[in-house]
Write a structure and sequence with these properties.
The chain has 6 helices and 7 strands; from the N terminus they run ααβαβαββαβαββ. It is of the alpha/beta class. It has a single domain, classed as Vaccinia Virus protein VP39 (Rossmann fold).
Length: 196
């Protein structure tokens, strides 16, 4: 588990956007308001901006927000906040690349419910949940780890476009060996029924 995000930011700031986000944008088929939760120093935020989105980028770390603010574009709204304290608006796309599992177990479902309500009709969420076999799932770690059934229960009111389970050894961005148990998710919010 990361004690400091500085090294992680150095390693990831120039990386390509996450594959899930690229796919989600292609599925959405239009631009609009986007939310990048746990934006870090902006690998996905910059891609969203380049695709024509108006982006609210949220991170609790001051360094991340200061770095993003230097982009100086009127289409970017950087916000330093925890996810629990953030005031959600309304979005066509919400991206949370390896971010939501860092929520404490007691608030995960509450925050995710607020996230779902903030999606516009036909809006898309893309992100990850962590599974119970993950290396970081140890006693005393307040992060959220879900069974497959629990993960699917969080998505029950959404249309699943992609739900892929990764349960394999790998490495962190820093090169540390780690067993990953991750659910990679793309879901869509149903449109309200049309009234004839």
């Amino acid at each position: 588990m990361r004690k400091s995000w500085d090294h992680f930011y150095q390693l990831t700031q120039d990386k390509s956007p996450s594959a899930g986000l690229v796919k989600a944008i292609s599925l959405l088929g239009h631009t609009g308001e986007a939310l990048d939760l746990g934006c870090g120093v902006g690998r996905d935020t910059r891609y969203l901006l380049a695709q024509g989105f108006q982006v609210t980028a949220v991170d609790r770390e001051a360094k991340a927000i200061v770095t993003l603010a230097s982009l100086s574009t009127p289409h970017l709204y950087p916000v330093q906040s925890t996810f629990e304290d953030f005031t959600f608006a309304s979005y066509a796309l919400i991206n949370a690349h390896f971010a939501l599992p860092f929520l404490q177990t007691g608030v995960f479902s509450t925050v995710f419910a607020r996230l779902k309500r903030s999606l516009k009709p036909d809006g898309i969420f893309v992100g990850q949940f962590f599974g119970i076999h993950d290396t970081w799932n140890v006693a005393g770690n307040p992060m959220t780890f879900l069974t497959r059934e629990q993960a699917l229960a969080e998505l029950v009111d959404l249309k699943i476009m992609e739900f892929e389970e990764e349960d394999a050894d790998g490495e962190t961005a820093e090169g540390t060996t780690k067993h990953w148990h991750v659910f990679h998710i793309i879901v869509c919010k149903h449109s309200p029924p049309k009234i004839e």
